[in-house]
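dumping the sequnces here before i forget
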Amino acid sequence: MSYVPLADQEQELHHPHSWVSKYIWSQDHKVIAIQYGGTAIFVGVVALVLSLLMRMQLGFPGAFDLIDPSSYYQAVTMHGMIMVIYLLTALFLGGFGNYLIPLMCGARDMVFPFLNMLSYWIYLLSVLILMASFFVPGGPTGAGWTLYPPQASMAGTPGSDWGIVLMLVSLTVFIVAFTMGGLNYVTTVLQARCRGLTMMRLPLTVWGIFIATILGLFAFPALLVSAIMMTFDTLLGTSFFMPAIIESGSPLDYNGGSPILFQHLFWFFGHPEVYIVALPAFGLVSDVLSTHARKNIFGYRMMVWAIIAIGGLSFIVWAHHMYVSGMNPYFGFFFATTTLIIAVPTALKVYNWVLTLWEGDIRMNVPMYFAIGFIFTFIHGGLTGLFLGNVVIDMPLSDTYFVVAHFHMVMGVSPVLVLFAAIYHWYPKMSGRMYHEGLAKAHFWCTFLGTYAIYLPMHYLGFLGVPRRYYALGSTDFIPASAQDLNATITIAALFVGAAQLLFFINIFWSLKYGKEAGPNPWGSASLEWQTPDTPPAHGNWGDELPVVYRWPYDYSVPGAHEDFIPQNTPESEEPTVDEQHFDPDHDPSMADL
Amino acid sequence: MSLFKRITEKPWETKGVIGGLNPEGSFDAAPEKVALVIFLVVASVIFSMLTVSYYVRMELPDWTPLSDPAQLWLNTGLLVVSSILFQWARNLVSNGQGKYLMAALVGAGVFAVLFIAGQLVAWNSLQSAGYFVASNPANSFFYLLTGLHALHLLGGLWVWSKSLIRLLSLGEPQDVRLSIALCTLYWHFLLIVWLVMFAILSNT
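..and the predicted 3d for all of it:
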């Protein structure tokens, strides 16, 4: 049997016949994407509420009876874990990866639709296991999202009997789900691109998701291994990580385990995880910026190489999370150096985004607000990362609010702004309708200014030495009383930003029914997903014939072009001829050569 | 086109369908095979992480080396036979010979099942000799590594049983060609993993 390329094979699609097989047990990547997205956003809201509970305690200590030290630590832990894994990872890869990869690759579906469906249902199972921990005796774990042993499974830490086990099991199940999805995304990008779509003609969105998925496939095994070993320690009494230790005056049966080993395994996963979230965000925001600036993305090849370089480097920086755990000074030097090196391709991307805007025909649509907002917050969070990458600066700041401010700016607010940009950008394609412009702009300003009001003062609190993770400060001489006023202000801002997210939900649901008809390509975008025969794309995406790609996805502001762009699937014969093109030296396309 | 050439292409310079009218697949292989190879890398990372942890943990003072049961040598032999039978089945299918295919395929699976049974016997003998999972980190690693390896093999047996059922119901060797080829690859991989694990376990 000779090899037949995938796009030439008549792919047998699973044709749904009933409402249940169409919307529940669906194998259509678009439905699975929305299932992933809906579930991720739901748990994200749970995590948001938990953060507001934390802020209420910090802003007004002791004013609310329902928050005691235990529930505070449980809220910290669940907030962190849900946001990083169950919201951001699941929404970027399971949500946007699922929706956009087949459409941007000109495929009818993922290469393994059944596995794709299974991936979602196993993800849902992991979410249910995690949510179940709120209802078991002792409640969810309060060990902090890093789950460091030995404290995670010792009496005194909330949820040390049931909560921690459910967390570890849920993570294991999540990794199984992710692996199923991840194999699908990578194989689809590699094998199912339509005719003419070379790797270097892929939109940066696909590149970001593709490399992030590869990072996930190689990094999650470290978390899997540590979760399994820690489950053994907790349930079977092994001593992989648990040292000889005394609990409430009596020695436990553990002996000689290495907590530092857990930290290495955890952060070998944990640092690439930052980029599993960041790379898809980089990709999505590149496409949003380019489309709404009506300009090709500046330095496309550099952007691709930077994504690959960041992906590779992200595996050799993990121990910068462990400077305060104690390590050989030469190790510290090594990891500080690699950490600063990874800033180079990252900064390159930031310059290229700014240069994409430079002299662009910028249209201030809502996705553009969020995309530009992202550039601000990402530069901000990125610069504080340069501080913390250095061992001597990290030591005094590591356990203060400076770190909280840093990572929330760089991997909390920034990816979330991109998520909103992406949701507003692709909403017309997903739903066929336009969102309400005014509500969306109000949502942007509340979120953007509000998050600055929350996190900018936290940097200052960190310099003052206010420790993070504390339930209450008590009487601490070196912290001025005015720090408490700042804490109260931050809390009010946080409550405001939390409430402002209602604008988003109202808008999304209201517009489904009452939004204006969007048409197939409201932004005049050149990439393939906007060229589908139906909006929203029908089952099988492309009607009778798969598209053929003749060019890259960034032909914007082309002189003489109908409207001002040329879609990827427009053949050369239908291009405007040279005579029609009035060459304008101010819009020299060879800028892209840089 | 080489990988380097591919990612140095200047996409804004070239128009038209590159590479004639051929669709774009990065590798001349079925998507299932591409996915399996990626999965093998993922599984290798899992076992590498465990190996690194094994060596780190071994340095700590409470480690008492475990003398591995002789049963493991027999089990290794069983897994080798299973892998050989898979290779035979694969060769038969690609040469279009259906005669001994069923025997080879059934034999391959049966020997794999025997391997897992043999591992359980080894566990049992360790338990009865008082080497429990929590009594020493060397024991914990032994149970963990052998258990995870057996779980991977069980996953393979699930695919094997599906191919077997398909072969029984359709009877056409060509229909199971791909799944037999992939099972063979997976079995060889698990054999190599086992040989490495066995070497580490018996030398430390």
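Chain A touches chain B through 66 residues (CB under 8 Å).
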